[in-house]
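Interim report to the steering committee. The following record documents the input for DUF4181 domain-containing protein (137 residues).
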Amino acid sequence: MFWIKFCLIATIVFVLISIVKLLLRNLLKIEKVKKEFFSFNHINELHRKIDRGLRTFSAITLVILSFVMLFYYEDLIYLILITVIAFMILNYMVRAFFEWKYTQYPKQSILTLTEMCLILIAIIIVIEFKLLGHLLI
């Protein structure tokens, strides 16, 4: 039942993000930029280096935090979720900065920040209303 709910929520969030991005594109006259599916789509070499460093740092941090939380502070396990959300926000912010500063389509950063906010709102709603059961927090 968990996976059915998870897939349904993920589908709803994906559709909502697509609709909002389409509306913003039309409303703000933002050009559609071709991106490969399942690609990092780095803006330039500096963005690639920073993104790789951020992903490495976040992976190491999450592994260490997971071990510490599991063995010493089981009652604070929700801090792992907060850390994942913080790294997700940081990743989106870096991407938006590079889109705004270093591309010929700076309005793309609006779409990136909107996507980040919608994902964050979806996570908060799922946790607050316990839509996936009591598995989270």
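Residues 2-28 form the longest helix (27 residues). The committee is asked to note this result when reviewing the revised timeline.
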